[in-house]
Amino acid sequence: MAPFGGFDDARSSDFSLEIKPPVVNVKEEMKDVVIPRPDNVVVNSVKLPGSGEEVQGKFDYVSRKLLIVVTPTYNRALQAYYLHRLSEVLKLVKSPLLWVVVEMNVASAETADILRKTGVMYRHLVCSKNMTYIKDRGVHQRNVALEHIEHHRLNGIVYFADDDNIYSLELFESIRSIK
């Protein structure tokens, strides 16, 4: 049954089936109440590492150097395939790893989407150097990556990995042993 006139005339509180409890000031009513602990609850003490007992053999943390993999890339037919293939290898490398991908002239949405989905920590840079000789493209892209690393004071081992090459995990593990 609806009231005469438009439905806008009816207030929402006229048809509300919600039961609202009365507002109670908990602080005043509960200030002298003590809640007893049930007898079937057991409370054990906890000892933290460094409080007398040393934890030995429970953690396998090994401090590793940051590995910075620089990949210059450009828009071409198999670019997505190459980047995806390289990202699958980099996913398997033990952290910490930073993948610096440098594109020419503009950051493409496709490359950004591929990088987002890899699960690898990355930086997406653009080399906007205007040049006439195409063979210098990779050199300028690598220089942009090195300037970025120097500007942000990233401390690690830099490896230049082209996206159209194939790499093994042993390579990246052996790079970490460099002193």
From TrEMBL:
It is found in: Golgi apparatus membrane. Mn(2+) binds at residue 164. SUPFAM superfamilies: Nucleotide-diphospho-sugar transferases (SSF53448). GO terms for biological process: cell wall organization. Signal peptide: none annotated. It is a single-pass type II membrane protein. Its cofactor is Mn(2+). Its EC number is 2.4.-.-. Gene3D superfamilies: Spore Coat Polysaccharide Biosynthesis Protein SpsA, Chain A. Keywords: Cell wall biogenesis/degradation, Glycoprotein, Golgi apparatus, Manganese, Membrane, Metal-binding, Signal-anchor, Transferase, Transmembrane, Transmembrane helix. Its main location: Golgi. The keyword Cell wall biogenesis/degradation applies. One of its GO terms (cellular component) is Golgi membrane. It comes from the Eukaryota. One of its GO terms (molecular function) is metal ion binding. It holds the Pfam family Glyco_transf_43. Belongs to the glycosyltransferase 43 family. Involved in the synthesis of glucuronoxylan hemicellulose in secondary cell walls. This is Glycosyltransferases. The gene is LOC102595195.
